[in-house]
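stage 2 :: seqdesign
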C-alpha cells in the first residue's frame, strides 16, 4: 500500500524522527501534536525555572489554542481540513484541573466536525507540555 509522509511548513518541527502526518490510502494519521510554535523552543503558556528548567506554571487555555491551531496547520499541509477528522485521542497531564477548560475550547474548534474522541490522563509528555493530540482524518 502506498503511503506519503507530510511535513507542515507552519507547524513546529517534530521532536523526533517522524513526520507530522502520514497518508495511507484515504486515511491521514497525524503524529502527536503539541502546543509548540514553529521556529521556537518556547512553549506557549509555559513558565520554566531559568536555572533548573523545572515547570513553574502553565496555562492550559493557551496550550489548547496552540495545539488546535497546529492540528489545523498539519491538516492544511495534507490537503485536509478539520471537518475530515474522524478520531482524536487527547492526552492531558492533569485531567481534574484542565478538562473543563480543554473541553470548552475543543468545542470551539472541533464542535461542528464532531469526531470521535478519547481523552486520557498521563503523568507526563516528552516536553513540558500539558496537552497533546493524536488525530485520524478520512480523506475524500
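stage 2 :: out
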Amino acid at each position: 500500500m502506498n503511503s506519503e509522509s507530510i511535513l507542515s511548513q507552519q507547524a513546529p518541527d517534530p521532536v523526533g524522527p517522524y513526520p507530522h502526518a502520514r497518508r495511507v490510502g484515504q486515511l491521514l494519521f497525524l503524529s502527536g501534536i503539541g502546543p509548540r510554535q514553529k521556529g521556537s523552543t518556547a512553549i506557549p503558556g509555559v513558565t520554566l525555572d531559568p536555572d533548573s528548567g523545572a515547570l513553574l506554571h502553565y496555562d492550559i487555555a493557551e496550550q489548547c489554542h496552540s495545539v488546535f491551531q497546529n492540528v489545523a496547520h498539519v491538516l492544511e499541509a495534507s490537503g485536509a481540513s478539520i471537518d475530515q477528522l474522524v478520531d482524536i485521542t487527547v492526552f492531558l497531564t492533569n485531567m481534574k484541573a484542565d478538562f473543563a477548560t480543554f473541553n470548552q475550547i475543543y468545542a470551539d474548534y472541533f464542535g461542528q466536525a464532531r469526531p470521535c474522541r478519547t481523552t486520557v490522563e498521563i503523568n507526563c509528555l516528552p516536553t513540558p507540555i500539558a496537552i497533546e493530540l493524536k488525530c485520524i482524518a478520512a480523506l475524500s
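stage 3 :: structure notes
- The chain has one domain: 3-138.
- The chain has a mean pLDDT of 95.
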